Description:
By secondary structure, the chain is of the alpha+beta class.
Amino acid sequence: MKVQSVEIGAHPGHVYRIGAYSVPSSSRIEFEEAMRRSADVLRTLPGFLGHLVLEKAGGESRFELVSIAVWESREALALAESRMREHHAKIGLDLPARWAEWGVVADRGDYVVPPHLQQPFDR
């Protein structure tokens, strides 16, 4: 497996697709397998820079898993979304329906690095 290092915050044009997921234990294995298959497809797309999945180790959050995919630009992410829709259609996957069937609760969004918030606060 090719692993690429991405220096977080070093490239203001990068876009971070962050998803937080609550997955019932009865669906966890299927969800993880689907997540890994999706990541395999994402890795082949232009502008993809890296992917990381985190598992909750403690705290108050209702989400057990968080995924972070890093894209070169908004355009690369838009193309990836289109390609993933095509891929899902090709394999007959209705992702929202599958997540509902599994009882998955998701909160996803796209984020960028605001340079002014990376600097120390000087009064």
